[in-house]
Amino acid sequence: MSQHTRTPRTARIRRAGLAGLAVVTVAGLLSACGYGSQGSSSSSDNSSPSVAASGSGAALSAGTVHIGYFANLTHATPLIGIQDGKFAAALGGTKIATQIFNAGPSEIEALNSGAIDIAWVGPSPAINGYVKSQGSALKIISGATSGGAELVVNPATIKSEADLKGKKIATPQAGNTQDVALLNFLAGKGYKEDPKTGAGDVSVIRTDNSLTPGAYAAGQIDGAWVPEPTASKLVSEGAKILVDEKTLWPNNQFVSTNVIVSQTFLKAHPDVVKAVLKASVDTNTWILANPDQAKKDANAALKALTGKALSAKVLDAAWSELTVTNDPLASTLQAEAQHAVTAGFIKQPNLTGIYDLTLLNQVLSGEGKPAVSAAGLGAQ
């Protein structure tokens, strides 16, 4: 696949209203291990401060809901909706406690431990969390984002897929969605890799997203398969896009982020889950309707979480690569699972029942929006 540049598209992020949020510290959660549940813990996981907030009115059936997500543009919905007050408004007196993660496997660990209740996460860790628990740990309850991940490389040393041999390519974490995508891609090109260690014809280096641009600038890696805005940060350092992942999918659409919930929390507090989904749908509606303010709002939210805003060039390029959506694009999930099989992380899984879109479709119906499909993988 040839290197190419992006065509800008309208940004879709809402203003982040940060006033009035109380910052609290959450004790360190669990280290991450494996595909969805194993692997080394990222240095940034669980290190960002949590935010507690509540709206007006009585609390719902839970006094607090714990929500996990990433400081990535592919997690735009919670990134903005929590900080601009839409989630607090939907939840009334129920408090929101948030935790920021670097990649999905450690987030699944936190969900399994009960440290978080609801999470925005990529499909690969969600699949493994479901399979490893024999269908008892989680449900996918909504879509969130399509697109927003690329393989970017040093054009001086890598001009085609054939040049990847012997090179060092970074991913966010062993078994996260981009890690699986890279290993599946390499397998399709005939490269041999060890999914556990990352050793092989191509050295897969699991690196915290926040450290990847520095590693690239220092010549420690030759490229990375990463989500936005990390990919565009690398491009700003002189990297070129070798593979835009969306070009590998029919209609340029694939699920890059879903919303998942602990089954225990879903059973105990469906009213809270429905309120979070309403906030998610309302936030996505605003994002899609307000492109002009979007980029400023994205930067404000990212700066609040990371301490540093993106340059206009990086923000424009990164946001042009993704689309927020309520649709989980369930028809692509089986393919994502097959990628994990090809990469050597899991055996052929049975994903029947991984989705429960009941509450989401109730919210969508209430707002006059069409229902979304589980593509035969819904709750039984």
Automatic annotation (TrEMBL):
<keyword id="KW-0732">Signal</keyword>
<keyword id="KW-0813">Transport</keyword>
<comment type="similarity">
    <text>Belongs to the bacterial solute-binding protein SsuA/TauA family.</text>
</comment>
<keyword id="KW-0997">Cell inner membrane</keyword>
<dbReference type="GO" id="GO:0005886">
    <property type="term" value="C:plasma membrane"/>
</dbReference>
<dbReference type="InterPro" id="IPR044527">
    <property type="entry name" value="NrtA/CpmA_ABC-bd_dom"/>
</dbReference>
<protein>
    <submittedName>
        <fullName>NitT/TauT family transport system substrate-binding protein</fullName>
    </submittedName>
</protein>
<keyword id="KW-0472">Membrane</keyword>
<keyword id="KW-1003">Cell membrane</keyword>
<dbReference type="Pfam" id="PF13379">
    <property type="entry name" value="NMT1_2"/>
</dbReference>
<dbReference type="GO" id="GO:0042626">
    <property type="term" value="F:ATPase-coupled transmembrane transporter activity"/>
</dbReference>
<dbReference type="InterPro" id="IPR010067">
    <property type="entry name" value="ABC_SsuA_sub-bd"/>
</dbReference>
<dbReference type="GO" id="GO:0042597">
    <property type="term" value="C:periplasmic space"/>
</dbReference>
